[in-house]
Predict the structure.
Amino acid sequence: MQGFGGIHRMIKNIYCVGRNYLQHAKELNNAVPTSPFLFVKPTHALVEGQGQTVAMPKDQGNVHYEAELVVHVGKNYEPGMKAEAVIDKIAVGIDFTLREVQDELKKKGLPWLLAKGFPNSAVLSRWLPFEGLEGTAGHDFTLEKNGQEVQRGNIKEMIFDIPTIIEFCAQHFGLAEGDIIFTGTPAGVGVAAAGDHFVLKWKEEQVGELFIGE
């Protein structure tokens, strides 16, 4: 799958970190993990938020929004590489989730793919320069729904920091140029309904938006 607009590199694997903000784990009554908890999305889930209207699944229960900072891997990982050498750009994303479907999968001990991998479930803003871990920690990412802020996060609040996530991904799954990682969502997740307008912000500036179709 070619990168958005034909100007970005090919996106390969989409790794997603679950339960990586303490207050989010608590708001969903989930146990706080003791090691990184990951799942994946197919590339068909990707969509760039450019102000367009996107479709969500119908008759499968509530769709929830989960705003996240997303990192793009710019070169093949080698043991010992620092995050600054691996990451070449970032984005603000939304991990859309079929919550009732996810709850049923959890009860049965099944993978989350049906709840997490549907088309348009992995939204990205435009790509932004990566200013290093310290520079990135100096700013919040936010999500607005219908003109009101609903989520605000900062990588300083993560349970597992970005270097830990990178090393974990590389060790267990492999990590190479073109992979992206959704690094987890802060508290404030909620229902996305038909007609909703979402705005993604970085450094308090709009970097992406989309509408939910009827």
Q: What stands out?
A: The CA atoms of residues 195 and 212 lie 5 Å apart.
